[in-house]
Structure formats: C-alpha cells, structure tokens
Design a protein that fits this description.
Blueprint lengths: L5 E7 L3 E7 L5 E8 L11 E2 L1 H19 L6 E8 L4 E5 L9 E2 L7 H5 L3 H8 L8 H9 L7 E5 H9 L6 E3 H4 L5 E2 L4 E2 L1 H7 L8 E3 L2 E9 L2 E10 H8 L8 E5 L3 E8 L10 E7 L5 E9 L3 H9 L10 H6 L8 E3 L17 E3 L7 H23 L6 E4 L6 H11 L3 E4 L4 H14 L5 H7 L2 E5 L5 H18 L4
Parallel strand pairs: 1-5, 5-14, 9-12, 15-21, 21-22
Antiparallel strand pairs: 1-2, 2-3, 4-7, 6-8, 10-11, 13-14, 15-16, 16-18, 17-18, 19-20, 22-23
Helix pairs in contact: 1-5, 8-13, 9-11, 11-12
C-alpha cells in the first residue's frame, strides 16, 4: 500500500472528536478519539471552548496516525466533518475566539426566532427560524461588538483556520446552508438576510465545494491538502453511499438525523422538515437533501446516566430494554432542548408519562430507546417519500433492540454498515475523490460493506397503535405551561 492511498478524516462532534486513517479500500487503519467538554452556563445554554475543540483534533489525529503506523507526511489528503450550526467568532489578528462557541443545541435565541419572517427564511434558505441554526447565534455574539477584524465560522471554518495558520477562511456549501444566511439555490451569502441579522459580509468565510482542494494544512509537522469538508450529517449521507435520489440514512448520535437524497434541486417543501445542500464536488452541480433533525436521542440516555444514575453506560440500555416485555405504558418524550423535526417547538419540555408503582428503571430505559425510534418514524412519515431502505450509522447503530424496533415501526428494512463511522468515512471519501484516491462515487459505493440488516417483523396494525400512543404523549409535551 503506497503512502498516497491514506486519508485522514476528522469528525469533530458535539461530545468528542474522532479521527480515522482510511486506506483506498475505505478500511480504517487507525482511529483516535478525544472527549470534548460541554459547558452549560445557564439553563438552555450550551457552549464549547474553541481551543478545546482544536486540541481534541490534534490529539485524536496523532492517536489515529500512531495506530495506523503512519506519519502525517504519508497522507494524501485531510477531510473534515463537523458538528453543524455551532458558531465561532474570533479575531483575525490573534486567532483568539471572542467568546465560547455557541453549540447547535443552545436555545438562548428562542425568543428572537419568534420575531423572524418564517416564509422568507423558508423560501430563501430552506430552513425554519429556530435557535438551532447559526444566524441568531452569530447575531448574539456580534451584539455590542465592533465587527471589524472579526471572523465568523462554523466548526469546519475554525478548524481550517487553525490548520492553515490563519491563512484560509472558508466553509463548504453544506455548512453554509445551515446558517440561515445562505441562498439555497444560488449558493451564495444572501445580502437581505445579512441585513436582517446585522451581519457584515466581511466576517463571513468564502464558500467552497465539499470535495476539492481548499488549502494546504500544516498538521503534525507535515503539509497536507485539505480536500473535503462537509457538515457531519451530509458527510454521513455521502459515507453511506446515498448517491441516488430517494436513498436515505439515519445517524443515531447525541441527536438523530434523517437525510434523504433528493437530487440536483432542493426538492419539495415538507412541513416539519428542512431543505439543505447535501454536498458539491468541484466543477459539478450541488446535490440536495431533505432533512429531519431530532435534537435529543442518545442525549436522553446520557441524561438517564448522568443526571438520574439509571445507567452505568449507554451500552447497557439494550440489555435493560430487553429485560422487560414492554415499557408498560411509559412514554418518555425527550424534549430536553425543545423539539426539532417535525414539530420545531423550542418551548416544548421533556415529559415522562404513564409511570406507576410498578415502573422500574428498565421501563424508563426502554421508553428512552423507543422514543428514538418513534421520533425517527415521525420524520420519515413527514418526508412523504417512499423509502425502500434506511441506512443506519452512529453509536446507536450498535443497539440491536433499537434497530429492530426501527424496522418494525417504519415498516422498511434497516441496514447497518460494517464501519459505523459513516461521518468520518464520508469526509475521507470527499477528500479522497478530490485527490484521486478514488476515481468515482461508484467506486466508493462498491467498497461499502454491510454488517447487519433488520427486516420488519411487527404487524402493521400493532406498529400503528404504538405510534398513535407515542404521538398522544408528544401532544402533551407540546401543551403550554
């Protein structure tokens, strides 16, 4: 294996950073991981220290290269996938962040979002006015500051700035499309939206394709081209080889995200879902996706573990769920950060219903897992697309109970790849395509390996009954007060 066949994928996520060294067979040769601290200064506020994000990347990259028995100068390219919408503002002169990064989960701008022109934003950006997206976070960070000499970016832009020693300030089309500042069809920053949010054009990054050489990075003593950038969910769609319209994936992580490839145009507007750029290869038209963003899924298990002590580890959830025949009437609506798709209700609050004297921790844990599958089904139904298959990845894809339930409720097979790190593989594939490690998307699809496939087993009327009970619980969580 020649050195030119290795790609480093950086997957900078909400709770940690994963780096993979990937070979030309899309096999992982080395893996590194570093936790990322989250900071919660007030209820509903979530922040990261940008320098801690950068340090986690350096540490995870060094670990991945070490495990692969490689050096940075052996790499053909670097690809970046990142937690989307998380907003960083820094000084161009010093590279110092002016504030902690405001994380996508943060709800501090909910009131501002209620004042925004929903129809304009939907038409221009494909998105909805929600604190999830970057523009109101950026507006908050710029308030009372002189914007001269400042730079804004999502996490990909921040990492690219650090990798290039401050020489390159750029983002890709997929990340730009998550800001509420980007024209979805013209693929450019929108002057009217910049004015709406009080954002000077000078703070914005250049927008580049997702696959194409962007810059030369200085990484661990070597110079390596950065040739792929995509938001984590778009990268996972690419890594799952969902290259044709109608192909879909779900990523089970801190939140869960369903993306459906809709081709070379944004596709139809669907209530409760958003339109987004999936990716763009240099010299080619953009591909688009329809997306449902579920804010709290794996995070609900983390909450049961950390706040209530009901789990020692999230991996225990499968065995605990299987220890009981059902959730015994318990429903857990995990609106711990409001509700995303298909409700877009930042004011919603978490709800546990149906508890009684016989309720045990197993029932609560099972209800939390069931809530993940229920929420994904709500998004799939809202998409109004006849799916033949759902491709699953992320940490939750290791949970056989969850995936069988998902197949049962959705009524379609759920397929799990041998490599669960689809986000990182997507970043590697986008970068590798740009430098010739792979010649085509078909070659990438051919290298994909399947580990498991879950077929629907539950009768449709029983699945519909379970979904109806779930939706009744959600309606209670949406009630005011």
């Amino acid at each position: 294996m020649g050195s030119s066949s290795l790609v480093l994928a950086i997957d900078q996520g909400t709770t940690g950073t994963t780096c993979l060294v990937v070979d030309d067979g899309l096999r992982t040769r080395g893996r590194g991981y570093r936790d990322v601290p989250q900071h919660f200064p007030r209820a509903g506020w979530v922040e990261h220290d940008p320098e801690e994000l950068w340090d986690s990347v350096l540490g995870a990259a060094a670990d991945a290269l070490d495990e692969a028995g490689a050096e940075a100068h052996d790499l053909a390219a670097v690809g970046i996938a990142n937690q989307r919408e998380t907003t960083v503002v820094w000084e161009r002169s010093s590279g110092r962040a002016v504030h902690r990064a405001i994380v996508w989960q943060d709800r501090r701008t909910a009131e501002r979002c209620r004042e925004l022109p929903a129809d304009l934003l939907r038409d221009r950006t494909g998105l909805v006015p929600d604190p999830y997206f970057s523009a109101t976070k950026l507006e908050w960070l710029l308030a009372g500051r002189d914007a001269a000499g400042l730079a804004f970016g999502t996490v990909d832009s921040w990492l690219l700035w650090k990798l290039t020693g401050g020489r390159v300030h750029a983002t890709d089309v997929s990340n730009a499309s998550r800001t509420l500042l980007f024209d979805l069809r013209r693929l450019r920053w929108d002057p009217e939206l910049l004015e709406l949010f009080g954002v000077p054009a000078a703070v914005l990054p250049e927008v580049v394709p997702s696959s194409g050489i962007v810059a030369e990075a200085r990484l661990l003593g070597a110079r390596v081209p950065v040739a792929g950038i995509a938001g984590d969910q778009q990268a996972a769609l690419f890594g799952q080889a969902c290259f044709r319209p109608g192909e879909a994936k779900v990523t089970y992580g801190t939140g869960s995200f369903v993306l459906v490839n809709v081709g070379a145009a944004p596709g139809p507007v669907r209530d409760g879902l958003v339109q987004t750029v999936a990716w763009q290869r240099a010299g080619e038209p953009a591909a688009y996706a329809l997306e449902g963003s579920i804010f709290v899924t794996g995070a609900a298990l983390q909450w049961l573990r950390d706040a209530l002590g009901l789990l020692g580890d999230a991996a225990e959830s499968e065995a605990l769920a299987r220890a009981v025949e059902s959730a015994d009437g318990v429903h857990f609506v995990p609106a711990l950060a409001g509700l995303g798709s298909p409700h877009w209700a930042p004011e919603a609050r978490g709800l546990v219903s149906g508890i009684h004297r016989g309720t045990r921790r197993e029932h609560l844990v099972r209800a939390a897992l069931e809530a993940i599958a229920f929420q994904v089904c709500d998004v799939v139904e809202a998409a109004e697309v006849e799916l033949e298959l759902l491709r699953a990845d992320g940490g939750g894809a290791d949970n056989g109970f969850l995936l069988q339930l998902q197949a049962d409720l959705a009524g379609i097979p759920v397929e799990v790849p041998a490599e669960r790190e689809a986000t990182a593989l997507g970043a590697a594939a986008l970068a590798g395509l740009a430098v010739g490690v792979w010649s085509s998307s078909e070659e990438i699809a051919g290298a994909r390996r399947i580990a498991a496939r879950y077929e629907p087993e539950l009768a449709r009327d029983e699945a519909d009954r379970l979904l109806a009970d779930w939706r009744a619980a959600v309606r209670r969580a949406l009630l005011p007060g």
